[in-house]
Design brief:
By secondary structure, the protein is of the alpha/beta class. It has two domains: 264 residues, 4-Layer Sandwich (Metallo-beta-lactamase, Chain A); 135 residues, Metallo-hydrolase/oxidoreductase (Rossmann fold, 3-Layer(aba) Sandwich), CATH 3.40.50. The chain is built from eleven helices and 20 strands. Strand 10, helix 5 and strand 11 form a beta-alpha-beta unit. Helix 6 packs parallel to helix 7. The radius of gyration is 22 Å and the shape is globular.
Length: 420
C-alpha cells in the first residue's frame, strides 16, 4: 500500500516535509526548517546553542519527530535514532524552508537534489554559510533523471522558481503516481520548465502543490515578472542622483548576475557583503565586488557610482553610508522578506529615521492563484493536497478532483482517505 504523510507545510508558508511509504521503503520530499504558524521560539534575539540546535528544536516541537531520519549523534533522543536503511530524501530546491533541516539527516541516508541545487549548496558551505549541522550525502540529479528506491521510482523534473536547481518530482509507486510541485511559478525566467512539469504530471493520482499566493487576496492584473523587476531596477539606477541601497536574496543567482550587469551598464558598481560575495564567486559569477574590493571612502567620495547591498539586519551600518534625500532603498525579495516578517518594522523604522524612501521592486517566486488553478485543471489528479499556504481551502479544484486539507503526521492513502 502506498501512503503519504505531511510533517510540515500545513497552515504555514514553508516548512515542507512529505513522507511517502511503499513496500517497506520511505521517500522524504523536502526537509525544510520549521516556520511556525504562531510563535517562533527561536526568533531573534534568541541564539541557538551550538551542537544542541536539533535537540532543542525537537524538545519544543520545532522539528518533526520522524524516526530513523536524523543523525543519532545530534538528536539527543534514542527513540528517533534507529534507522532501517530504507529511507531516501529528495530536495526540491535550496531554500531554507525546504532544505534547512538536511544538515541533521543521518549520514547513511542519500539526499538527492538537482545538480544546480547541489552546486549552490556546496558554494554556500564553502563560503561559510552552509547548513546548520553537517553537509548531507548529496546526490546530484540531472534533468529528467529517474532514481529507483526499492519499488519506488522518483523522477526529477525542473520547474521555474527564484533559485537555481528548482525541481518537482514524479513519484511512481505500487499504488499510483504522486506529483510534487516543490515551489513553482509560471511568470519567471523559465516558464517552459513549469509547463513541462504540468504536462508530465497530467493524470497523476495525487498532486501535492504549493499554494503560497492563496494566503492573500488575489491581486488584480498579471503578476510582476523578472522583466518588471529589471525595469524597476534600471529606473532607480537612472533616476537616483545618490547612493542606491538594495536588499535581495543572493540565492537568486540569476537576478544577482543581472543586477550586477545592469549596474555596470549604468556606471555603477554593486557592492555585496563579503560573505555573500564569497558565495557568488564560489558559485561561478565573475566580477563580484564587495568590501574587500571597494572601500567606504570610495563610496563616500562618489555615491552615485555605487549600489550597496547591506548585510541583512546590520541596520546600524547604514549610519556609515552617505545617505541623504538623493538615496533610495530597493527591496527586491531580500531580507527581511516583507511586511509579514516581524523584522520588517525594524527596516522601515531605520529608513524613516534616515529619511530614505523604500521601494519594493521584486516579484513573487510562487505561482499566482489563477496559474495554480489552471495547473490543477490541466493535471486533473484524483486527489490534490494544497500545502505551503495559510489558506489551503482557497484552492478550488475542478469537478472530479478531490481536495484534501492534510493534518500533521496523519497517514493518507492515495485516494485521500486517512489510514489508521
Amino acid at each position: 500500500m502506498s501512503t503519504v504523510e505531511f510533517w510540515g507545510g500545513l497552515g504555514v508558508i514553508g516548512s515542507s516535509k512529505i513522507l511517502i511509504r511503499d513496500g517497506g521503503h520511505r521517500v522524504l520530499l523536502d526537509f525544510g526548517l520549521d516556520i511556525p504558524a504562531s510563535t517562533d521560539l527561536f526568533r531573534a534575539p534568541v541564539t541557538e546553542r551550538p551542537g544542541r540546535e536539533l535537540a532543542d528544536r525537537l524538545r519544543v516541537g520545532a522539528a518533526p519527530r520522524i524516526p530513523g531520519v536524523f543523525d543519532p549523534a545530534v538528536t539527543g533522543d534514542p527513540e528517533l535514532a534507529a534507522t532501517d536503511g530504507n529511507a531516501a530524501m529528495f530536495i526540491s530546491h535550496p531554500h531554507i524552508d525546504h532544505v534547512g533541516l538536511a544538515g541533521f539527516v543521518d549520514p547513511t541516508i542519500p539526499v538527492h537534489a538537482h545538480t544546480e541545487a547541489v552546486r549552490l549548496m556546496r558554494a554556500l558551505a564553502d563560503s561559510g554559510d552552509g547548513l546548520t549541522g553537517a553537509e548531507p550525502a548529496w546526490v546530484a540529479l540531472a534533468d529528467g533523471q529517474v532514481v529507483r528506491h526499492g519499488d519506488i521510482e522518483i523522477e526529477c523534473v525542473p520547474v521555474d522558481h527564484d533559485v537555481p536547481g528548482a525541481c518537482g518530482y514524479l513519484i511512481r509507486t505500487s499504488g499510483g503516481t504522486l506529483a510534487y510541485t516543490g515551489d513553482i511559478r509560471f511568470h519567471g525566467r523559465h516558464p517552459e520548465r513549469s509547463h513541462d512539469f504540468v504536462t508530465r504530471a497530467a493524470g497523476c493520482d495525487v498532486l501535492v502543490t504549493e499554494g503560497t499566493t492563496l494566503s492573500w487576496p488575489a491581486p488584480d492584473g498579471r503578476p510582476r515578472d523578472e522583466n518588471d523587476v529589471a525595469a524597476s531596477f534600471v529606473e532607480a539606477l537612472t533616476g537616483t542622483a545618490g547612493l542606491v541601497l538594495l536588499a535581495m536574496y543572493p540565492r537568486d543567482v540569476e537576478r544577482a548576475a543581472e543586477f550586477m550587469a545592469l549596474a555596470r551598464d549604468h556606471g555603477r558598481v554593486l557592492v555585496w557583503p563579503v560573505p555573500v560575495a564569497r558565495f557568488l564567486r564560489g558559485y561561478g559569477l565573475p566580477d563580484v565586488s564587495s568590501w574587500d574590493t571597494v572601500t567606504l571612502s570610495d563610496i563616500r567620495a562618489d555615491p552615485k557610482r555605487y549600489v550597496v547591498h547591506p548585510a541583512p539586519y546590520d541596520f546600524a551600518s547604514l549610519l556609515d553610508l552617505p545617505t541623504d534625500d538623493e538615496t533610495v532603498f530597493l527591496h527586491a525579495n531580500g531580507e527581511p522578506l516583507g511586511p509579514f516578517d516581524p523584522r520588517w518594522t525594524l527596516l522601515t523604522d531605520w529608513l524613516t529615521q534616515l529619511r530614505v524612501p523604500l521601494r519594493t521592486i521584486g516579484c513573487s517566486g510562487h505561482a499566482a492563484p489563477d496559474d495554480l488553478h489552471a495547473m490543477v485543471e490541466r493535471i486533473r489528479p484524483r486527489v490534490v493536497f494544497p500545502i505551503h499556504t495559510t489558506e489551503p481551502t482557497r484552492l478550488h479544484p475542478p469537478i472530479g478532483v478531490r481536495r484534501v486539507v492534510a493534518r500533521y503526521g496523519v497517514r493518507y492513502g492515495f485516494d485521500g482517505d486517512p489510514r489508521g
